[in-house]
Amino acid sequence: MVSPFFPASTLTKPCSPSYTVFGGKFMPKVPINRYIVADAEICHGKPTFKGTRIMVWQILDMLAAGESVKEILEDFPALNKTHISAALEYASELVEGERFFPHDKRHHEILSG
After folding, report:
1. How many CB atoms lie within 10 A of CB 56?
2. pLDDT score for 42
């Protein structure tokens, strides 16, 4: 299934970052999906919603804390439901291949119940 948030071209090849000058060095501006970008000149390179300084982690934290989409959109009128969906899909993409490996016997006992 092709995602409405990730252009098909980014699914088959790596993102082609453009570069901005930051502190005398060239730093990438990386498009993460159609709604999210990481730019070294905005919020220290943290992923933000394009055209804003709203960081993706802020919205994910609000959702995790139980705030409704309606409440979030009232707090951030520059966003819409599509932005929220793009943030959730981005978070899903980040953890999709993650695996947890217990480091000691105590962790193994906790996980095995």
Report:
1. 23
2. 85
Angstrom distance (rounded) from CA 46 to CA 54: 10
DSSP code string of the chain:
---SSS-HHHHHS----EEEEETTEEEEEEE-SSSEEEETTSGGG-EEETTS--BHHHHHHHHHTT--HHHHHHH-TT--HHHHHHHHHHHHHHHTT------SHHHHHHHH-
Does residue 51 carry a pLDDT above 70?
yes
- Summarised one tens digit per residue, pLDDT across range 72-83 is 999 999 999 999
- Provide the 10 A C-beta neighbour count for residue 27: 16
Beta-carbon count within 10 A of 106 CB: 9
48: which residues sit within 8 A by CB, 6+ positions away? 36, 37, 38, 39, 42, 54, 55, 56
Report whether 84 contacts 63 (CB < 8 A): yes
Query: What confidence score (pLDDT) does residue 35 get?
Result: 96
